[in-house]
Fold each of these.
Amino acid sequence: MSITWTLWLFFVPMAYTFYRTFLQWAYWRGAFRARRLLRQYPWQVHEAPESGIGNMPGVRSGHAWLKFPDPGTPGEQVTMVMHSHVRSVWWGGRLGKRAKPERKAQVREVLFAGDPRSAGVIAVPGPRHLYVIHQRLSRNPGMPTEACGDGPDRSERPTDSNWGRHQGSE
């Protein structure tokens, strides 16, 4: 009997191991982003923020969004979109119009740490529902801050492109 059958037996677990190894880098990068944001900004509690799925200018159908107060302009709100990601599925199932009341109750209180004009971390009370959310414009290092609706005071706050400069050794 040939030994090659054992190669086929272990091929699927080995392929999955390689997949998870490469995928883990994305999880680590997200964890370090969340850590930097949480060091820079305190948690803020938002009771029942305006939210939904799609049906908003600039938001693709099927993408969940939340509105948070704009720290630079009192009375105004900034929309933050949860772009396609495995973790956004949980949020989308609770922010949609057809979500059951008990599911909507799970996101009635939303914790936010960050600047909604660039990036932040959202969560609900309890474990496992931490999500790093960012504005797509802030991820373009060549984009001037005014294009994101930010004023001159925003230039000293961290964004994805200048986090290393504000965190010293990180």
Amino acid sequence: MPEWVDGEGRGPSRRSLLRTAGALLPGLVLGVGGTVGTASAASAPPAAGGTEPRGTFSSPGYSWATTTSATTGVVFTLTGPDGGPLPGRRVRFSLSSFHTARASLWFEVSEGRKSPGRYGYLDLDTDAGGTVVLDPWLRHGAVPTTASGVRPVLRAQLVGSEAILATSHLSVSESRSTR
């Protein structure tokens, strides 16, 4: 089930509340624990030897014409250090420059809503093969991305992590009719 977060005109978003709480947490841990070990354990770098998961998109870039109705073929795969799939992991997908490019690209979620909402990011779980197909949620509009003056990038990261696992360029272009 998708999870979305966006604070459009509804007061503080969960993202801003979590960011604030996350910024305060190290101070609280230091104030309560009073030991340097607590703080250093929370910020310890990953162990050597490649223990971090890896993510890839099925293409380094995706492009659609304004006349097509769907985005297709956008697949993300999450693997462990051994190359095996990582099922059941929550991944956040986000669109860079969303507020500028929102007429061109967005995630659309309609579950539990009367009308679909447009969002700049979306959290989804990997399936048994460690993949997520974004086609049911990623949408594009009739406005070419060049009209907004930005070149949007689709990013993937594990929820709770700041590390970007994979990126892919996105574009929507005007289709030219041939007469």
Amino acid sequence: MPPRTNDHVPGSGRDTGPAEPPGLSGPSAPTGPVAPPGTTDARPGTGDRADARTGTESEAAPRTGTGTRAEGAEATARPESGTEAAGIGPETFPPGVRMAALRRFSAAARRARGAHLTVCAALLAVAMTAGAVAVGGSRDGTQAGARTGTDAAPAAGALAAGVLAGGDLDAGIRALQSHLRAQPRDVGGWASLGLAYVEQARTKGDPSRYPQAERAFDRSLALESGNEQALAGRAALAAARHDFSGALKYADRALKQNPYSERALSSRVDALVELGRYDEAAEAADTADSRRPGVPVFTRYAYVRELRGDVRTAREVLERALDGASTPADVAYVATALGQLAWNQGDYETALTHFARALAADEDYLPALEGRARAQAAGGDRAGAIGTLEQVVARSPLPGPLVTLGELYEARGAAGDRTKAADQYALVDAHAALARAGGVNADLDTALAAADHGDPEAALRAARAEWDRRHSVHAADALAWALHRSGRSEEALPYARRATATGYRNAVFLHHRGVIELATGHDGDARRSLTAALELNPGFSPLGARTARAALEDLEAAR
């Protein structure tokens, strides 16, 4: 599977203290600490990470309507033109229209690569959102006839919870937009709208929503400098854009305001993981577990364990989280995480069982559909895998499923499949350009796709840029593979070894390391790495598994 950026965005509202179920950190899994004075118990948020829906929290409603404008940096960061400029606008086009726009853009990009790519991406972003960022309103963020000052917004808390509860996100966003036109000084309402835009960007594969989210968070901070909801939301936004240093900064600021903020605690773990600071991530996961045990924290705790090679604990924690999942969104999210874990270990039947449970909870849950397709392909059902992935990319053309679908076309080798595969790889470039127009760092996706299916030198530039930002195992693997594909295998080898040094059991990493070891004359090491990759997950990649077997056969023949 591709890197699992665990940006499960907990539900809206203000986190006010620990809650049941009990935590995981202690030897007997004790409950969290007693809430500090002045707080109330609240159930942890439900929902999902980067590849799942957000949820709700039954806790205090967001602050509304006081209109207190704080002094400080954020207080001066007013949106330029009222509620419209802050991100209230029409909904995006349906997925089919977005997919058609991406295809047109990718075709144009192939005809004229280079200087106009970024401009085209920006135009594409505008086209795909149907002019969502309108201009209008007054300079102080109000519209004619809109109520201001101390007008209360009694429905804001319930409305925000409903938007993020896993229901109709688009309808919920429209309701929040309408509420904020009437109550433009609702601090919590703007923060909730920003988080909803982050979720909409993820579920629709539409990174043009991220600038709208940023404006909504900025509006909330302009109304009340340093408010925890908006700071935690900015942390989630930064993580979604792969700005993990920024995510850590905002999470730390939010936690100074509220040490029990589930969203900030979760984003802090995510940021440390993706920065490659794994010891600190483990400590952060323990802290989050002691303060806010629940699905968002449990899944992060499991992933930290998996990255350190402790698959057994990761599985046990996820199974416990699934037992405690109380909403369809949580069931789909946790079951998919279990499916991904099983797939990584080559247990395809178990993976398919978990993905089926996820889809029973939410038949449209794209990460579960993608996981099912990968398990189908690894288990020999190539036709089923292709059909499932074609559904996935038609709705959300993200790099991971696009590359896998392209490789499945290549592996099938039917008439026209080579052209179909090339089209998928071109769409990766198109999506990366659109992502950058939305402020997303797409270098890791670019490096991984271009190394195998594009320009190796472009892959190397992207991989080096990513390594400059963070030293995660995924960044190390991407740099190692890009160096190798660019003919610099000796330079690649230390990075390939670093990618596998934490104990993380990943067949792709082992395959890359084995190929690089073979290229540098370390035949014995190459044999061990390639064998380990195929024993761990024999169907890890439609094309990579085939090349690993061929390399082992060549090594045996040379003995």
Amino acid sequence: MGHHTAKPLQEFESASQDLSALGALGSLLGAKDDIEEGMTTLAKLTKQLDEEWETEAKFLGDVCDAFDLIEVLLTAAAQAKKG
């Protein structure tokens, strides 16, 4: 999953440090720090989700392997019974 989110996440994190587009509006509203903090938090959460998705994908692969093994064992048992 990380290969899909790495570049956008890097660009997002870079943008969180350069909020000059807000200009005076950001300064007047005091929002610049809040926005930077929010963007940093979102970037961290995205990284955590990526790690979680990788773990879940590995788990699902392991479950599939287990079912494949069960299928092989059941087939072998059925053949032995016919045998």
